[in-house]
Amino acid sequence: MKSTFSFIHAADLHLDAAFKGVAQASPSVAEALQTATFDALERLTTLACEVRPLFVVLAGDIYNQEDQSLKARFALRDACKKMGQAGVRVFIVHGNHDPLYETDQTFTLPDNVYVFGTEGVEQVRVKNAAGELVTVVHGISHGKHNERRKLARQFERTEDTVFQVGVLHCTVDSVAASEQYAPASVSDFTKTGIEYWALGHIHEQQIVSREPFVAYSGNIQGLHINEQGERGCLLVTVDNGHVSAQPHTLGGVEWKIERIDISKIEHLDNLEEAIEQRFDAVKAQLPDTAKGVIVRLIIEGRSSLNGELRKNGSAKELTERLRDGQTERAPFLWLKDIQLECKPDVDIDSMRKRPDLLGEALTVAAELTDEDGVTELRETVSDVFTSTAGKRHLTILSDDELIQLAEEAQYVCLDLLEVE
Asked: What stretches of 240-383 adopt beta strand conformation (E)?
């Protein structure tokens, strides 16, 4: 019979990382963001000290090497020291944002911490308080920021009959990811005979496989609007070889994308009321530990308000009005921005068939949204983006972004040509 034990699986702490898309945040929101990753680490440390698992795994990207944050390194050392005082060991592998060879080595971590090297997979045998061997932890760190070695294939369980754990910062081929680092597959994991894989790199918490048990713990704090919802770690319990993984929320600031349909809203004051009610509902759903939430509001649906909302500066003015007073309440809500996906309350397909300038303009705009049209549109605007000024200040648009511009152009045509 195998031993029963528990451990915490965390990754992608990105301590002191800069938050994206909140340059205009109020001072109180900015302060909350500046401390958010450190607050999440403190919650992780508190959880470890209260639960006292056999060990904690940090599966890479503990901080951003490009930021060279002294504060982040001190925070990691202090957290590990507290966990050590509670009798909790810590195992660390480095990832693409904090590769071992490029990381400041002037800090001495406490004795309860083991950092896996880069030359080959290392194994650490972990015993319980009675001196009995409970598990073997295997790991290897990234040596450089663009690690391309298939590190998972270097793992192999030891001859010990205990449950064994692998720690790796990598990209699994069955998981969508824009950047491939230390690429691996579930079959790579299976061949090793290791029962649990504590992975880092993908910021979404997810179980990739159950036999063997392969999981991403996700990041401990969302960093931008596309990292929505609660963020945290996994408390893993191993009972006679059976694995259960319980999520624990650590992030204190959440990101959310909220949509509101204005099809049945005819007046701006009613729209404001509907939005404020939605904001109250969003805050009511936050966990008790949350400091606040950052929201992108998408307005959609056909409405007579479309023209008013699309007037130059209207969305910005509405954003500023809706922000008023929200940051002073606890938990705070910061309206990041408003995106307009609403449409005029007209039958645009019928308008497109009209034998006049409006019909022609709408037809051309629609043609630009098909495959050939996007190619033509990209060629048309290429001079803007390849110019000296364009290269300095503009980001090349994706096909989806070009299509969105072409669709929005239809509604500009409707407003400019005074459609009734």
From this structure: 242-249, 253-261, 292-303, 332-344
Q: Three-state SS for 306? A: helix
Give the strand order in the sheet containing 133-139: 122-127, 133-139, 163-169, 196-200, 213-216, 206-210
**pLDDT given at position 103:** 61
53 by DSSP, 3-state: which? coil
Q: 3-state DSSP call for residue 339?
A: strand
In the predicted model, is pLDDT for residue 419 greater than 60?
Answer: no
The answer to which of 51-65, 169-183, 228-242, 369-383 has the lowest mean pLDDT is: 369-383
- Does residue 275 share a domain with residue 130? no
Same-domain check for residues 327 and 360: no
Percentages helix, strand, coil for the chain (3-state, rounded to 5) are: 35, 25, 40
My answer on whether 337 and 383 are in the same domain is no
Q: What total number of domains does the chain contain? A: 3
Full residue range of the structural domain in which residue 259 is found: 252-345
> What average pLDDT does the segment 143-148 reach?
86
Distance CA 262, CA 260 (A): 6
